[in-house]
TrEMBL record:
Coiled coil: none annotated. It is found in: Cell membrane. Keywords: Cell membrane, Membrane, Transmembrane, Transmembrane helix. This is GlsB/YeaQ/YmgE family stress response membrane protein. It is a multi-pass membrane protein. The keyword Signal does not apply. Its main location: membrane. Pfam families: Transgly_assoc (PF04226). The chain crosses the membrane at residues 6-22, 29-50, 56-77. It comes from Metabacillus bambusae.
Length: 85
């Protein structure tokens, strides 16, 4: 049950990061979950463990990390589309 809760929270974090940046994550729901997990890892490395914890994620660092990740992925995808054209 704890793993399912982590998947849900990770998906929500990835989805919120996409909304804040204004870009969609490739892969839909699975992409949002992956962005949430990687963003939580990245945010914890950069900002540490602080703020409220839900489902094993410290929400504030996870959201900031996911926003950074979404921004980087959207920048890379945009540059790849320019080179493909």
């Amino acid at each position: 049950m704890e793993f399912l809760w982590a998947l849900i929270i990770g998906g929500i974090i990835g989805w919120l990061a996409g909304l804040i940046v204004g870009k969609d994550i490739p892969g839909g729901v699975i992409g949002n979950i992956i962005a949430g997990f990687i963003g939580a890892w990245l945010g914890s490395l950069i900002f540490g463990h602080w703020g409220p914890e839900v489902g094993g994620f410290y929400i504030i660092p996870a959201l900031i990390g996911a926003i950074i990740l979404v921004f980087i992925v959207s920048f890379i995808m945009k540059s790849m589309r320019k080179h493909a054209s």
